[in-house]
């Protein structure tokens, strides 16, 4: 059983073919899933395979090694990844978050140098914003960079960094002027291969997303060329972050859509096969009503995200709308996962069942990308 939703206008035949092709690849990774979860990260070969298939940097221009698509292509890939229960793959962040920072704010030299390698998977991207003492309050980060000759010297630490173990191209949010707040923040691109002064902490053990390499990062007098400042003007980092965060928050919501679809498909199939008191669990009115409610959450969330994709393509997705969408859809995702686990009964609590992993993976959606409390605070400022 596969639940259906309204087909969005942005999902044309080409995008649909991309979605199906990506879904096939991501589903083929299921044989590695247990190993990757035990290791706390995917194999690098998975990234290279995704790059070879054209599934990395799909929305980047062809002159920079990308597939020449737009955000619709990224959305199709996010849906496919989520529907295949491969939430641990950090490709959505690499392609839909890190690469756009370089495309929109980098110099021509930076685009040619980094995006081409990101498209193949030779370079895996990450963005380092969160610090041990600073979560959503990006104005008060402590990591700093001082000039020395033609270099910056970076000192500080970051935590909860997605792709933290595998990434070798990391956009680091740091203070280039510690006397200023937001105006003192800059983004500096760090290439980590054989880089003195850079150290990765251990892979962080998490409640969910266990196959995603999430790490602490440490910078101790790390030298980085001043040419690695993203763009050309110091102190532009906070403005760059504010410009790109709406797309990041929409991506989080899209991941929720794919996960909700998979959870509903799994639960409908299970309740039609599992029997209790001499009949399929599906035959109980409570089961059907609960799944109808969950299907409503899925349909409404999908429609909201489809409208947001259209707005993003027209460059009309506002910060406040993206914040509210991220908050609302991630809340609905967690509701759906909880109801589906309940309908699986004791088996839903066993991690060998995909529904248990979907449940655990969903919880962080209300935290990263800015907590849902911060999302409401941001949106309220525009009311």
Task: Please provide a written account of the structure.
This protein has 383 residues and is an alpha+beta fold. Helix content is 48%, strand content 15%. The chain has eleven helices and nine strands. It has a four-stranded antiparallel β-sheet, with no helix packed on it. Strands 1-4-5 form a three-stranded mixed β-sheet, with helices on one face. Helix 4 runs parallel beside helix 7 (237-273). The protein is globular and about 80 Å long. The mean pLDDT is 96.
Task: Annotate the secondary structure layout.
Elements: H1 13-28, H2 33-39, H3 44-52, H4 71-83, H5 91-105, H6 108-120, E1 125-128, E2 144-148, E3 151-162, E4 169-175, E5 185-191, E6 198-203, E7 214-225, H7 237-273, E8 275-276, E9 279-280, H8 285-313, H9 319-344, H10 354-362, H11 372-380
Helix pairs in contact: 1-4, 4-5, 4-7, 5-6, 5-7, 7-8, 7-9, 7-10, 8-9, 9-10, 9-11
Instruction: Report the structural category.
Output: alpha+beta
Radius of gyration: 21 Å
Largest sheet: 4 strands, antiparallel
Mean pLDDT across every amino acid position: 96
**Total of DSSP H or I helical runs spanning 4+ residues:** 11
Query: What's the β-strand tally?
Result: 9
What order do the helices and strands follow? HHHHHHEEEEEEEHEEHHHH
User: Strand order within the widest sheet?
Assistant: 2-3-7-6
Report how far the terminal alpha carbons are from each other. Answer: 42 Å
- Percentage of helical residues? 40-55%
Q: Which short descriptors sum up this protein?
A:
383 residues; alpha+beta; 4-stranded antiparallel sheet; 3-stranded mixed sheet; 9 strands; globular
């Amino acid at each position: 059983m596969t639940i259906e939703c309204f087909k969005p206008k942005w999902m044309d035949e080409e995008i649909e073919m991309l979605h199906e092709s990506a879904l096939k690849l991501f589903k083929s990774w299921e044989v590695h899933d247990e190993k990757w979860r035990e290791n706390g990260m995917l194999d690098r070969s998975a990234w290279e395979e995704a790059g070879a298939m054209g599934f990395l940097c799909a929305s980047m221009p062809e002159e920079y090694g990308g597939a020449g698509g737009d955000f619709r292509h990224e959305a199709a890939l996010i849906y496919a990844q989520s529907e295949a229960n491969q939430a641990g793959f950090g490709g959505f962040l690499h392609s839909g978050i890190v690469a756009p920072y370089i495309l929109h704010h980098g110099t021509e030299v930076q685009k040619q140098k980094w995006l081409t390698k990101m498209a193949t998977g030779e370079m895996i991207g990450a963005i380092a914003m969160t610090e041990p003492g600073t979560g959503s309050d990006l104005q008060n980060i402590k990591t700093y960079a001082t000039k020395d000759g033609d270099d910056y010297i970076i000192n500080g630490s970051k935590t909860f960094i997605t792709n933290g173990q595998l990434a070798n191209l990391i956009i680091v949010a740091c203070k280039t002027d510690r006397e200023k707040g937001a105006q003192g923040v800059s983004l500096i691109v760090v290439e980590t291969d054989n880089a003195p002064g850079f150290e990765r902490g251990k892979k962080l053990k998490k409640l969910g997303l266990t196959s995603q390499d999430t790490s602490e990062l440490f910078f101790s007098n790390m030298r980085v060329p001043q040419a690695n400042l993203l763009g050309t003007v110091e102190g532009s980092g906070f403005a760059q972050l504010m410009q790109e965060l709406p797309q990041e928050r929409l991506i989080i919501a899209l991941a929720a859509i794919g996960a909700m679809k998979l959870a509903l498909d799994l639960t409908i199939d299970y309740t039609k096969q599992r029997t209790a008191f001499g009949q399929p669990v599906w035959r109980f009115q409570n089961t059907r009503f609960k799944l109808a409610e969950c299907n409503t959450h899925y349909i409404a969330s999908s429609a909201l995200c489809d409208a947001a994709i259209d707005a993003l393509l027209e460059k009309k997705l506002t910060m406040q709308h993206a914040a509210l969408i991220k908050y609302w859809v991630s809340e609905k995702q967690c509701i759906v996962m909880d109801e589906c686990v309940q309908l699986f009964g004791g088996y839903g609590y066993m991690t060998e069942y995909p529904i248990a992993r979907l449940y655990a993976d969903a919880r962080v959606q209300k935290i990263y990308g800015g907590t849902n409390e911060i999302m409401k605070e941001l949106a309220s400022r525009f009311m």
